[in-house]
């Protein structure tokens, strides 16, 4: 059985009945508020070769990022080595150079005492610090008057015109008449030397070489044709040569004797076959094709 509690005010009067025990009935959990997302910065590249190849505007942007990333995302020593390099400030316009110098001056607390001394004497400070070497050179160059250029002697323009006037009254030489035997137009003059022809016509040498090649080629073809004709005649030999009259008569006599001998042999063969046919069986002769031979012999 739970105890009954009563609430009493400062006057000792009961203000609430029944009273409740002092217990925790609810507990709130505080949820973390979502703030801006934390961007993980990428480490800045501190490569000396790449940095020196950058243009002036890119060098200023890189320097600003590198100084902001120090010392977490960029090493102090690497940034210090790049800033103090003599070539880092070369080729940088005055606008970007002053901006870079201001950024370095605002970030001097990130460097050590020894590094600050070196930075105060680096090339960047010498060029772009007010009253530095760069402006001093400009002031000196502005105060000094430029040296006068050495006076060159004026050219005599009239000398050439006068010489032309003097030469103009002389009558021009007429071109010599071309003879019928003179070389045709476009062909080189053989009587002249090669040097003279080359001076007159730059393409003369090429044309002369082509003419010589054509000439040699034609001679080679002609010689080859003659050799082929001689070989052809040698192969034919005595086939087309005419025999003597005595040789021709002897050949005709031999041919006639051969023909007469064959005519004498034909009747004897026919008679022998006929005699053989009388004794032989006619069916055997017909089967062997002898009847046709006998008919031819009789006919």
Describe the structure.
Among the domains are: 48-140, no CATH class; 259-298. The relative contact order is 0.03. Strands 1-2 form a two-stranded antiparallel sheet. The chain contains 13 helices and two strands. The protein has 299 residues and is mostly helical. The chain is 56% helix and 3% strand. The model is unreliable at 134-153 and 178-184 (pLDDT under 50).
Give the ordered list of helices and strands.
EEHHHHHHHHHHHHH
Structural class: mainly alpha
Number of helical runs? Answer: 13
The termini sit apart by: 170 Å
User: Which spans have pLDDT < 50 for at least 5 consecutive residues?
Assistant: 134-153, 178-184
Mean pLDDT value: 71
Strand content: under 5%
Overview in brief:
The chain is mainly alpha-helical and 299 residues long.
Q: What is the element layout, followed by pairings?
A:
Elements: E1 5-8, E2 14-19, H1 48-52, H2 56-69, H3 76-83, H4 94-106, H5 113-120, H6 123-128, H7 133-143, H8 157-167, H9 194-200, H10 204-236, H11 245-279, H12 282-287, H13 290-298
Antiparallel strand pairs: 1-2
Protein traits:
single chain, 299 residues, mainly alpha, two-stranded antiparallel ribbon, 13 helices, 3% strand, elongated
């Amino acid at each position: 059985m739970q105890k009954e509690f009563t609430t009493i005010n400062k006057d000792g009067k009961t203000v609430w009945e029944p009273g409740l025990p002092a217990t925790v009935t609810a507990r709130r959990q505080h949820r973390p508020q979502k703030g801006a997302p934390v961007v993980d910065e990428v480490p800045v590249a501190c490569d000396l070769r790449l940095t020196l190849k950058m243009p002036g505007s890119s060098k200023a942007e890189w320097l600003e990022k590198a100084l902001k990333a120090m010392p977490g995302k960029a090493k102090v020593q690497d940034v210090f080595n790049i800033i103090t390099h003599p070539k880092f400030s070369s080729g940088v316009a005055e606008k970007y150079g002053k901006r870079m110098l201001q950024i370095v001056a605002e970030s001097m607390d990130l460097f050590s005492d020894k590094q600050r001394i070196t930075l105060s004497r680096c090339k960047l400070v010498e060029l772009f610090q007010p009253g530095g070497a760069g402006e001093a050179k400009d002031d000196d160059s502005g105060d000094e008057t430029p040296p006068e250029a050495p006076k060159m002697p004026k050219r005599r323009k009239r000398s050439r015109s006068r010489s032309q006037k003097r030469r103009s009254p002389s009558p021009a030489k007429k071109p010599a008449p071309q003879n019928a035997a003179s070389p045709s137009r476009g062909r080189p003059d053989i009587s002249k030397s090669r040097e003279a022809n080359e001076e007159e016509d730059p393409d003369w040498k090429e044309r002369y070489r082509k003419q010589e090649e054509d000439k040699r080629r034609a001679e080679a073809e002609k010689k080859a044709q003659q050799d082929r004709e001689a070989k052809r005649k040698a192969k034919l030999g005595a086939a087309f040569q005419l025999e003597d009259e005595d040789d021709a008569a002897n050949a005709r006599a031999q041919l006639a004797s051969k023909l007469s001998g064959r005519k004498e042999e034909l009747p004897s063969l026919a008679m022998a076959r006929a005699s053989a046919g009388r004794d032989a069986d006619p069916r055997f002769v017909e089967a062997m094709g002898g009847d046709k031979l006998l008919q031819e012999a009789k006919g």
